[in-house]
Amino acid sequence: MRVLLMGHPNVGKSVFFNRLTGANIIESNYPGTTVDYTKGYMRQFGEDIEVIDVPGTFSLDPKDKAEEVAVKMLRDNKDAKIICVVDASKIERGLYLLLEIIEEGFPVVVALNMWDTAMDKNIQIDAPELEQILGVPVVPTVGISGEGISAVVSKLKDITPVDADAIVERMGGI
Amino acid sequence: MQKKLNEMAYDEEGVVVKIEEDLRQKIAGVGIRTGKKIKMITKEPLKGPVVVMVDEAKTSLGLSVADKIIMEV
After folding, report:
1. Which listed site, A71, A129, A130, A154, has its alpha carbon 20 to 30 Å from A113?
2. Rounded to a whole number, what is the distance in Å from the CA of A46 to chain B's nearest CA?
3. Which of A29, A64, A93 should one mutate to test binding to chain B, selecting the residue with the greatest count of B CBs within 10 A?
4. pLDDT attached to residue A13
5. Do B25 and A97 count as a contact with CB atoms less than 8 A apart?
6. Which stretches in chain B have pLDDT values below 50?
7. Domain coordinates of chain B in residue numbers?
8. C-alpha to C-alpha distance for A88 and A113, rounded to whole angstroms
């Protein structure tokens, strides 16, 4: 199994990567820290799973070199499973990329990262409801403390692609 | 009153009313679409980018992008 970590710049993908693989790649609180991909492995479900930390991108319509790398990673790994890391405190804009990835037909788990920050800002998110609408697992996480990460990993096993049109339908149309 | 995004003053807030067709898809990823509230944070000199606040997040936009977004302020 191959897993791609995807999401906007500065949402904590590299923190996730380090947590998952035990690696120690550079993390910083600046967008654009990761401009090329990093590969690592984690042992899960009795197999070695390849984990790839993809540079942050806002959409699948690349606007710079780092985004090009991200989109190419996705297109070159049609059989990959995706952990889409979304900044829970800026959830709305994160949903756009998520929907694009779903639309491309990839199986996805959503990590609503920086859940603690969202709570601090009094942003309330109904994760189970979101999960129902999207039809993919939605897991609140706090990357730096590791909260929720094992839950994300456990969801990887059974995820399958979902129909983007069905999501639109559940939302009551565009 | 309507004006272009790059004509907004510091700290001014407005709502997006129109985005040029060819740009719409491009900036949807950073959360800018019609109906969105945007606040001007910084305007860099010498045709530099503008920095705006959208949904608690700062986003910088080139002038060529910002002048294709029409705001109601």
Report:
1. A71
2. 37
3. A93
4. 92
5. no
6. none
7. 2-72
8. 6
Q: Does domain B2-72 have CATH number 2.30.30.90?
A: yes
- Which residues of chain A have a CB within 8 Å of the CB of B57? 87, 90, 93
Residue at A114: amino acid letter: M
Chains A and B form CB pairs within 8 A to the count of 30
| Nearest residue in B to A60, CA atom | B29
Query: What gap in Å lies between CA A154 and CA B72, rounded to an integer?
Result: 47
Task: Name the β-bridge partners of B37.
Answer: B15
The whole-number pLDDT of residue A146 equals 93
Minimum distance, in Å, between the CA of residue B31 and any CA atom of chain A: 4
Alpha carbon distance A103, A73 (integer Å): 16
Annotated domain spans of chain A: 2-170
A84: confidence class by pLDDT, cuts 50, 70, 90: very high
- pLDDT digit string, tens, across residues A116-156: 999 999 999 999 999 999 999 999 999 999 999 999 999 99
Does domain A2-170 bear CATH number 3.30.300.30? no
Q: Are B69 and B24 in contact (CB under 8 A)?
A: no
